[in-house]
Amino acid sequence: MSDSHSNKNRFGLDADTHIPKDVPLAKTPGHKLRTSNTIVDRSALHQAQIKLKDQAVDSKALDKMDDQEFEYVQFEDQVGVIRKSAGEEEEVKAEPVPNMFTGPSYRNQKERFRFDGHKMLHHLDRVMNWMQGERFAPIHIDMGLTKFCNTACLYCYAVVQNMTKGTMIKRDALLRYIEDCGKLGVRSIGFIGDGEPTLNPALYDATVLAKQVGVDTSMATNGLILDMDRAHELLRDMTFIRINLSAGTPEGFRRVHQSTEENFHLLVENIRELIRIKKENNYQCTIGLQMVLIPECFDEVIPEAELGAELGVDYFVIKHCSDSEYKEIGINYENYLSLEDMLHKAESISNDNYVVQVKWNKIMAAGESDLYKDGYRKYDVCYGTPFLLQISGNGKIYPCGPFFNKDRFYIGDLHESSFYDMVMSDRYWEVHDDVANSVDVHKDCAIGCRQDYVNKFLYDLKNAPEHVNFI
Ligand code: SF4
What we know:
This protein is α/β, with parallel strands linked by helices and 471 residues long. The protein has helices spanning 42-54, 124-131, 171-184, 203-212, 231-237, 250-257, 261-281, 301-311, 340-347, 360-363, 419-424, 426-438, 452-462, and strands at residues 2-8, 14-20, 68-75, 78-85, 140-143, 188-191, 216-221, 240-244, 286-292, 315-319, 355-358, 372-373, 376-377, 388-391, 396-398, 412-413. The strands form four sheets. It has a ten-stranded mixed sheet. Strands 1-2 form a two-stranded antiparallel ribbon. Strand 1 and strand 2 (14-20) form a beta hairpin. Helix 3 (171-184) runs parallel beside helix 4 (203-212), helix 6 (250-257) crosses helix 7 and helix 8 (301-311) packs parallel to helix 9. The structure holds iron/sulfur cluster. Residues 382, 384-385, 400, 402-403, 435, 439, 441, 445-446, 449, 451, 455 line the site of iron/sulfur cluster (SF4).
């Protein structure tokens, strides 16, 4: 059917080309870069194809595969072919197949809480303020109410934050600040971080006032000295109460929290009482447990997951231990990588009313995760601090917890100035700009800081890819 032409190509190598004998050839041969000087006349070829189209193709001459059956369909002077599999006619398809549109087959489980991510998409007005270079109030503030504690948990980050027994934000300054938050439009405050919040007696009044001025509140507490006479107010006015508990047994509690086994029993009874009050009064406050995972409590994960189910709390979340930029707590993130099966087993203890969830993104920081690769953040700039601010338990304001006591980033003291004025001041915005412009998040910052998820979102927004309209 074809002539074989042997030629040298431009690299001096042999090149065989196979050209059908009856192909129309061009009069002018091709140039030397081609592998052959024989050039097909394409316009003549096109004419030949038009002629061929006029002749009916014999469909019955087509090859069939072994398991195929053809059905021939006559239309005027042409015969078409429908291909069928052998025995197709008899086959009754019982299984649902795609595109039958028969309604739901599978539904993803609704995410009740988002522990391992952010909720910035619900605050696009503040994001727009930021994009347009305007000044705006934080969406959320984590704040300590004291700088001391009544336990000494092994994993406590506060030990690197200059804890001082007896130091706490004073009642007047705290309540004035809460009012300012209402005026500014701060949406939530977590009494979380630094010392134990229940050691500050103004906690209860601050919670009630925040509700009145339209600011949501929450707290993280060791739960040991809760004023049960005022628990009603907390359960009525707080969005959630999170109990810091990293053990499911009295012995584990003594070991990890450096407390007594009696205190474990006291805490369990306090949680039971909170749940009873909540149910009796139909309060909406969420009650959860949080474990900070360190090697000393690896064996306490399953017992605590079971304890949470038995108590009837809403959730049990398991998180990594944040270490400082100087590794003062001594966390080896590699240790987490071998725990995956056990952590999945803990999650499987969830039920319809109880969520057990692992913060996989941060716990697996040493492996590949959405937020980290080999311990490096997948963003280069910290833009998150004006959206999520952190305030120390002594009333001093810094952009974030890991930067407490770093003078360069000190914004002001709630005992000396109004929070409203501070947020409007040049100093406040200079500090946030300094963080964005000067801090290297890969080496100056604690791994797994509170602003991580928000930072990743904002960084992606600032560094848009090309062709954004092609969503
Ligand atoms: S990235 Fe660094 S500067 Fe920004 S909040 Fe985290 S620790 Fe603070």
